[in-house]
Amino acid sequence: MSSTNLLSAGGLATPFRSIPGDEALAVLDAYYGMTGTLRRLDTEKDDTFRLATPKGERFIVKFSNPDEDPNELSLQTDLLDHLARVDPGLAVPRVVRNRDGKGFFATTDSHGQSRMVRMLTYLEGTPLDRIDPTPDERFRLGATLARLRLAMAGFSHPHEARQIAWDVQHLPKLAFLLDGVADPDHRAMLTKGIARFRQIEGKLRTCRRQVLHNDFNRSNVVADRGKPDFVTGVIDFGDALRTYIAVDLSTALLAYLDPQGGPAMFDRGRDLLAGYLSVADLTADELEVLPHLIMARVIARALITTWRAGQFPDNEPYIMRNTHQGWKQLHQFLSLPLDEISRTFAPAAPGAAARTTEEARI
């Protein structure tokens, strides 16, 4: 796939006109026999609503970007069905079938746009981006991600090898976006960061791959501090694909970098990593490339969001909400030798070892 096509995958580059709420309700009544109250949710590339029915039930309803590939929705639908079979207790959405038994279907909206529609169960909880997790809660986050990885291990799909810009194994393909970064200092850091990523690509290729969530960030996890597992939902499987296990974990760890980019920049993530290792293993090579992949996500985020903010200026606050803190983090990362970064999560590093089973029960 070409670099420019990488950006268009999944509808990232496609503008669209939003469907009105009353029109969306009419579609739901016709295809699901459901009605109620819709609340529009902030999203990056589609129309997403929360439906509250008169019976008190709640669901998530998504009207896809007009350019979204039906194969991608097939991948997501089949993956959620797989998780429901393999690990029924895992806190992920369930697919709600329409009257014809379909997990998603196509319709044409009043603007003449082709939209694919699907409904998912709603998972109660507080979005993680409104919570500052404690060390033990970060441990439980890591354990949940590892459990999700293991549940996905046996899944395959004809479209699993798709390529998207947010899969950082493809970071060098985003280099053409550097010209769109106006600040020369920022552009220089991003250029150096991509060059450093190329130095670990060979090691990355020795690591394991499978279908993974690939977007386990704070916006895609809901939690309840009163629940034993803390995590009450992992949502938005829109970036799911076959990638490196370490790439999937790096996305989760990105949220726990020190925003000031200090010397202990990676330390808050060690609790999450320990929780992950209490459930699933990582190889020595995966631990070595992991900190580099976290920073690759910082670089990809800066490049993609800067480009998308220019494409969709009306949605700039949402698109850029997490980008600005990355400059201090990237500066700290680039100030350290490659080998020192590679040793960040090595088992001998202070704090890097997994907690004991007894600690996991706390």
Can you offer a commentary on this structure?
- This protein has 362 residues and is of the alpha+beta class.
- The protein has two domains: 19-122, Phosphorylase Kinase, domain 1; 127-345, Alpha-Beta Complex (Aminoglycoside 3'-phosphotransferase, Chain: A, domain 2).
- The chain is 40% helix and 13% strand.
- It contains twelve helices and eleven strands.
- The chain has helices at 3-8, 21-32, 70-86, 135-152, 184-204, 245-254, 269-277, 284-311, 316-319, 326-335, 338-342, 357-360, and strands at 37-41, 47-52, 58-63, 95-96, 105-108, 114-121, 126-127, 209-212, 221-223, 231-234, 241-244.
- The strands form three sheets. Strands 1, 2, 3, 4, 5 and 6 form a six-stranded antiparallel sheet that branches.
- Strand 2 and strand 3 (58-63) form a beta hairpin.
- The radius of gyration is 20 Å and the shape is globular.
